[in-house]
């Protein structure tokens, strides 16, 4: 969530934001409190007076970066919830199908708790380090290497999110066009080719919006995106009770019967195949609680990818009215609980509709059945939401690249356009040549998401929080969390690469 987006949600004071501020996080004897000379129509509260721990920080930056927040508690919950929810929700049913209901719930609970704990570490580090910028915390902790690690992780995560949005365009737009044209459509027509469509959408819709210098007005689409996902969840729950188990296999069964007839010309062979198919169908419609297979390795990365919101936490914290770490943790608790329920319901009812036949992108799985006008509306809503969200995701990627490579230089349109084109070209290449959205969820979840959720917050905390000794419970917990992050990242990446190698040697996807 960018700063421009959150600026749209400034609202008048309400009773929710009238609570007193807590100064507990800022009473450090080594950093004496000092009055800030800030000209304006309001005064700094005590917490904000103690927030700037660097005495050499420029006054201009103080005035622009650390002003009191104006966003209420409720709107901050909405902003953070919208930062959490995204295309990752479409892959959760696939994760449940390859872990089982019980194991999925265990993993979902642990990943959500770990994500909340990392936000706790991040907020304490921001208070101690005196910065609300993720990259700046990395620089304070580990110099240019920390800044590169933070910037690179945020960039990779945003590219993964943008790729997943464009995957939805690639998968869903041909189905919408096919439904709108009707049964007379030519299935080999170019306008039903997802690769062509995603490039056209990128060039004619996303690129013009992405070239604007200020994308703040597109913050309105964040609300649309969240509402689309809620609508999607309602439809998934409703359709669970409308779709009989196995009905999505009717077309596949017809094709299998034709193949069996060609391959086995005897009646005995055909009957044997039918009996096997019936037994397989009965087994397929039973929910499983623990599943272990070659695709189980994607579960943790998919879940981690779905809960990444850490780049948005500090900007939302900065805009929070009555800013305090305790208040921001309450915002995080409410947001994560709401998204936990939303994720669990979407995964559970999607899985109980298709069981082991759910695809890596749940919405595309419904193309196997005659969904009717309701799924055309769902697909259109999701397509509009993700298309208008891509320019917002491009904005922080471009800003990060500009800051790393062209820091201190004046704005230049040629550089602005060139970076935007390169980002879009690279992402389109991923979408066209990477086989499935599962691979994007898996790779980004195992690398960048693991860095943002596990490794960086704990590493920054260990380095920057000086008031706690290395033998304290808090530091030991952060060290264990850091180690677990490396275990998750290295283990998941190793298993995913092994699965890729095995799949390739077995004949591809």
UniProtKB/TrEMBL annotation:
<keyword id="KW-0406">Ion transport</keyword>
<keyword id="KW-0739">Sodium transport</keyword>
<feature type="domain" description="Amino acid transporter transmembrane">
    <location>
        <begin position="70"/>
        <end position="497"/>
    </location>
</feature>
<keyword id="KW-0029">Amino-acid transport</keyword>
<dbReference type="InterPro" id="IPR013057">
    <property type="entry name" value="AA_transpt_TM"/>
</dbReference>
<keyword id="KW-1133">Transmembrane helix</keyword>
<keyword id="KW-0812">Transmembrane</keyword>
<keyword id="KW-1015">Disulfide bond</keyword>
<feature type="transmembrane region" description="Helical">
    <location>
        <begin position="440"/>
        <end position="464"/>
    </location>
</feature>
<feature type="transmembrane region" description="Helical">
    <location>
        <begin position="476"/>
        <end position="498"/>
    </location>
</feature>
<keyword id="KW-0915">Sodium</keyword>
<dbReference type="GO" id="GO:0006814">
    <property type="term" value="P:sodium ion transport"/>
</dbReference>
<feature type="transmembrane region" description="Helical">
    <location>
        <begin position="101"/>
        <end position="123"/>
    </location>
</feature>
<feature type="transmembrane region" description="Helical">
    <location>
        <begin position="416"/>
        <end position="434"/>
    </location>
</feature>
<keyword id="KW-0325">Glycoprotein</keyword>
<feature type="transmembrane region" description="Helical">
    <location>
        <begin position="297"/>
        <end position="317"/>
    </location>
</feature>
<keyword id="KW-1003">Cell membrane</keyword>
<protein>
    <recommendedName>
        <fullName>Sodium-coupled neutral amino acid symporter 2</fullName>
    </recommendedName>
</protein>
<feature type="transmembrane region" description="Helical">
    <location>
        <begin position="217"/>
        <end position="238"/>
    </location>
</feature>
<comment type="similarity">
    <text>Belongs to the amino acid/polyamine transporter 2 family.</text>
</comment>
<feature type="region of interest" description="Disordered">
    <location>
        <begin position="1"/>
        <end position="25"/>
    </location>
</feature>
<feature type="transmembrane region" description="Helical">
    <location>
        <begin position="189"/>
        <end position="210"/>
    </location>
</feature>
<keyword id="KW-0769">Symport</keyword>
<keyword id="KW-0472">Membrane</keyword>
<dbReference type="Pfam" id="PF01490">
    <property type="entry name" value="Aa_trans"/>
</dbReference>
<keyword id="KW-0813">Transport</keyword>
<dbReference type="GO" id="GO:0015186">
    <property type="term" value="F:L-glutamine transmembrane transporter activity"/>
</dbReference>
<dbReference type="GO" id="GO:0015293">
    <property type="term" value="F:symporter activity"/>
</dbReference>
<dbReference type="GO" id="GO:0005886">
    <property type="term" value="C:plasma membrane"/>
</dbReference>
<feature type="transmembrane region" description="Helical">
    <location>
        <begin position="372"/>
        <end position="395"/>
    </location>
</feature>
<feature type="transmembrane region" description="Helical">
    <location>
        <begin position="329"/>
        <end position="352"/>
    </location>
</feature>
């Amino acid at each position: 969530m960018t700063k421009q987006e959150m600026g749209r949600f400034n609202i008048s004071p309400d009773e929710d934001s009238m609570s007193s501020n807590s100064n507990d996080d800022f009473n450090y004897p080594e950093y004496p409190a000092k009055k800030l000379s800030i000209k304006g129509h309001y005064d700094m509260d005590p917490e904000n007076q103690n927030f700037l721990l660097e005495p050499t920080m420029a006054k201009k930056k103080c005035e622009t970066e650390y002003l009191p927040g104006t966003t209420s508690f409720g709107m901050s919950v909405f902003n953070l919830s919208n930062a959490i929810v995204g295309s990752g929700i479409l892959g959760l049913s696939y994760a449940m199908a390859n872990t089982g209901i019980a194991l999925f719930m265990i993993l979902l609970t642990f990943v959500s708790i770990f994500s909340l704990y990392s936000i706790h570490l991040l907020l304490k580090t921001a208070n101690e380090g005196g910065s609300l910028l993720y990259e700046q915390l990395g620089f304070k902790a580990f110099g240019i290497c920390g800044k590169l690690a933070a910037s690179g992780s945020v960039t990779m995560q945003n590219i993964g999110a943008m790729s997943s949005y464009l995957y939805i365009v690639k998968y869903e737009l041909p189905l919408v066009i096919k439904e709108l044209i009707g049964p007379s459509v030519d299935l080999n027509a170019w306008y039903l080719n997802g690769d062509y469509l995603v490039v056209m959408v990128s060039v004619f819709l996303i690129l013009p919006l992405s070239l604007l210098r200020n994308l703040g007005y597109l913050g309105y689409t964040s609300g649309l995106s969240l509402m689309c996902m809620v609508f999607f969840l309602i439809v998934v729950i409703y359709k669970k009770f409308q779709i009989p188990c196995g009905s999505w296999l009717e077309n596949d069964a017809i094709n299998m019967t034709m193949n069996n007839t060609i391959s086995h010309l005897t009646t005995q062979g055909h009957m044997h195949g039918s009996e096997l198919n019936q037994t397989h169908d009965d087994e397929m419609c039973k929910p499983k609680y623990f599943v272990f297979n070659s695709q189980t390795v994607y579960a943790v990365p998919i879940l981690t990818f779905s809960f990444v919101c850490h780049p948005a936490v500090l900007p939302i914290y900065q805009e929070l009215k009555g800013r305090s770490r305790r208040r921001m943790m309450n915002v995080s608790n409410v947001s994560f609980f709401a998204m936990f329920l939303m994720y669990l319901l979407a995964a559970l009812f999607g899985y109980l509709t298709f069981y082991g036949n759910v695809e890596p992108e749940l919405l595309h799985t419904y193309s196997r059945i005659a969904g009717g006008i309701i799924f055309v509306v769902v697909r259109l809503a999701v397509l509009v939401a993700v298309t208008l969200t891509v320019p917002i995701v491009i904005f922080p990627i471009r800003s990060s690249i500009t800051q790393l490579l062209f820091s201190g230089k004046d704005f230049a349109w040629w550089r602005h356009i060139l970076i935007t084109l390169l980002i879009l070209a690279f992402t389109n290449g991923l979408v066209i040549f990477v086989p499935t959205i599962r691979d994007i969820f898996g790779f980004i979840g195992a690398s960048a998401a693991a860095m943002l959720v596990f490794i960086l917050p704990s590493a920054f905390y260990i380095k920057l929080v000086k008031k706690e000794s290395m033998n304290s419970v808090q530091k030991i917990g952060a060290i264990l969390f850091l180690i677990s992050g490396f275990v998750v990242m290295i283990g998941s990446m190793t298993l995913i690469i092994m699965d890729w190698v095995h799949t390739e040697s077995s004949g591809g996807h």
